[in-house]
From TrEMBL:
This is Conjugal transfer protein MobB. Residues 353-372, 412-437 are annotated as: Disordered. Pfam families: Relaxase (PF03432). NCBIfam families: Bacteroid_MobB. InterPro entries: Endonuclease_MobA/VirD2 (IPR005094). Residues 43-151 form the MobA/VirD2-like nuclease domain. Residues 424-437 have a biased composition (Basic residues).
Length: 437
């Protein structure tokens, strides 16, 4: 069983999200605790909200008093409603929320039947209930519940005590090649992504971008990948590094194969539905882009937003570090596409942009998908490979142009394909003139 815990400010949004499932006959209220009952047994958002109001009004310091939890058994588990009720109660008791008011909703709109629990993390006196080591305690609670109710154990990645932070590249620190290597040599091994755009969204968390280059070698068409370090604004801050410097897994052919295999794995992966529901819940819990991204980050999910120069969102990518999969919003659901988020955040972005409009218009479009004028997102604790010694081939000082076999043009233009085509046309004209002579 996998648990996702969200903290927010909008109790009405959290209740509305779940009640909408009930109204569309894709869900039902299974049980409640410390909730005011009605004469006919039916409930509305306003009716449910009344039970939480005293707690929310008593709160004076907690910024995000709303608690929204989803508990997701394996699709192979056959869990009865009575079991779901008891699982919810046991989980809330183990997490320290057993005396809080809460509502348990069952969702049946996807293949994986699961429950959502809406509650508050401040007690009746307005004091925040301790949430120290919440993630670890939640994992322990899930493992215990799996045993108690004979559920299929979740295949979550086990962490070790010597983990370090998967560090972004610092282009000012020097030895950029080794810094990039520490990232790109391992990402395809640990993460699933289906396009170069999704790969770049993942790389952008570590101040790196990859570009495809095309050209000819001995009359044969060739393709390759080059990598750049990025600065704080998402602009290229280094010379390009050929992918062969970082091993075959970082190259064009290996990435194409990775895309194919990832599509097969991700198509049927059950965590897709969990991520979709987590994102939808975050949309109802939060009111701003910053809060939305922070809400998901607290659950191990990075959000990469790509905007045009005039601020329109044209790409939404979600990086789930728990399942280690990278999804475009439209892959998850049409309601999570770039256009939906663009309409939702349009007014916010316009207001944010107004004070510094001229400067932003002159800012080049980031290739990384970072928001214009926004600092890089916080990364996630992952691996301990940063202490590994760099292989000898990373210290080779090969000429970039020779090593790429003529794939990359001599001039470092923004459009490598266009520049390379121009160079080849020049060479052809030169050969024709020599032939006439």
């Amino acid at each position: 069983m996998i648990a996702k815990i969200g903290h927010g400010v909008n109790m009405t949004g959290a209740l509305s999200y779940n009640q909408l499932k009930v109204d569309k006959e894709n869900g039902e209220i299974l049980t409640m605790h410390r909730i005011i009952e009605t004469a006919d047994g039916s409930f509305s958002v306003a009716q449910l909200l009344r039970s939480f109001q005293p707690y929310l009004m008593a709160n004076k310091r907690t910024e995000k008093p709303v608690l929204h939890i989803s508990l997701n058994p394996d699709p192979g588990d056959k869990v009865t409603d009575e079991n779901f009720k008891q699982i919810a109660k046991d989980y809330m008791d183990r997490m320290g929320y057993g005396d809080q008011p809460y509502v348990v909703f069952k969702h049946t709109d996807i293949e994986r039947t699961h429950i959502h629990i809406v509650s508050t993390c401040v007690d009746r006196y307005g004091k925040k209930i301790p949430d120290t080591f919440e993630k670890l305690r939640s994992m322990d609670a899930c493992r215990a519940l799996e045993q108690n109710y004979n559920l299929i154990p979740a295949t979550e990645k086990q962490r070790t005590g010597n983990e370090q932070i998967f560090r972004p590249v610092d282009y000012k620190a020097g030895d950029i090649k080794s810094q990039i290597a520490s990232v790109v040599r391992h990402l395809p091994t640990y993460y699933q992504f289906t396009t170069l755009g999704a790969y770049n969204a993942l790389l952008s968390l570590f101040n790196i971008t990859a570009e495809e280059v095309k050209g000819e070698l001995h009359g044969q068409p060739k393709q390759g990948i080059v990598y750049f370090a990025l600065n704080e604004q998402g602009e290229k801050a280094s010379n390009p590094f050929k992918s062969s410097l970082f091993g075959k897994d970082a190259g064009w052919e290996a990435l194409q194969q990775h895309f194919i295999e990832a599509k097969k794995k991700m198509k049927t992966d059950p965590t897709k539905a969990i991520l979709k529901n987590t994102i939808e819940a975050a949309m109802h819990l939060t009111g701003t882009e910053a809060d939305f991204k922070k809400q998901l980050m607290e659950q191990g999910i990075n959000t990469v937003v790509r905007r045009t120069g005039d601020g329109r969102i044209y790409g939404m990518t979600f990086i789930d570090h728990e399942s280690r999969m990278v999804w475009n919003g439209s892959q998850l659901d049409t309601d999570l596409s770039a256009n939906v988020f663009n309409d939702w955040w349009k007014e916010q972005f316009a207001e944010h942009r107004q004070d510094d409009d001229d400067a932003r218009i002159n800012t080049p479009l980031p290739t990384t998908g970072k928001n214009i004028g926004e600092a890089s997102d916080e990364t996630h604790e992952l691996f301990d490979f940063l202490n590994e010694e760099q292989p000898a081939y990373l210290n080779e000082d090969l000429g970039l142009i020779d090593a790429l076999g003529g794939l990359l043009p001599e001039a470092q233009g923004e459009d490598y394909e266009e520049q390379d085509f121009t160079n080849r046309m020049r060479k052809k004209k030169k050969r024709k003139r020599l032939g006439r002579q």
